[in-house]
Amino acid sequence: MQSIMTAIKRKNIITIQHPESVHHTNGMVGSWTDWELSEKGKRLAENISSHLKQTIQPGSVVIYSSTLKRAVQTAEIVGKKLGLTPKLIGALKERGLGAGIGKSVQWLKDNIEQEELTVYDKCFADAESRYDVWKRLIPFYEEIISNEEENIIIVSHGDTLSLFNALWLGLDIELLNKIDLYGISGGVSFLYQNSAGKRIIKRLSDTSFMYPIANP
């Protein structure tokens, strides 16, 4: 028992759902279209970075980001403040919506091929289901859980992070047909694993980090 216990590593994981992107303002689908942060989103990312600088010790953290521009820009703003270079991970991309990519939200609603009632459903035949995203997240998740990195920042997207939250808590994928752990854009979550292996979500999608602080 002792050898099992000592093999468990403490983990402090901060996840950031990228703040306002251009697609949040123009009625377009996000998904894999490589939208940038809006000017407001960039300011919010700066505020998030200032709060994190007060929260964590520079140099003791690894930062991972989705490869999509809106997440990369967020990670670069945070990384610059903390003296870190983001590592870009394709598995952290938002869910691919197939034929809906590059289209407006209204077009998607008008042309959807299948209503998504379960994690296995796809809105279009060439889209990803939530289960598909779950599967592509697992190798990344298993890597960061088993490696020596104790303090980690992850910058990603709403649907992807909701699935990461469920993985973190050890939930069965099919529970997500009935429950969910969604955040909102710009939300910052704090996840913790103690030396006994207990998983905790201390804060879920805290929006206060988007507000400016007096002395960043």
From TrEMBL:
Q: What is this protein called?
A: Probable phosphoglycerate mutase
* GO molecular function ontology, one term from the record: phosphatase activity
In terms of SMART domains, this protein maps to: PGAM (SM00855)
Q: Name one GO cellular component term.
A: cytoplasm
Q: What positions does UniProt annotate as the active site of this protein?
A: 18, 94
Q: Which InterPro entries match?
A: His_Pase_superF_clade-1 (IPR013078), His_PPase_superfam (IPR029033), PGM_Phosphatase (IPR050275)
Pfam families reported in the protein's UniProt record: His_Phos_1 (PF00300)
Give the PANTHER family listed for this entry: BROAD-SPECIFICITY PHOSPHATASE YOR283W-RELATED, HISTIDINE PHOSPHATASE FAMILY PROTEIN-RELATED
Task: Name the residues that bind substrate.
Answer: 70
Taxonomically, the superkingdom here is Bacteria
Q: Which Gene3D superfamilies match?
A: Phosphoglycerate mutase-like
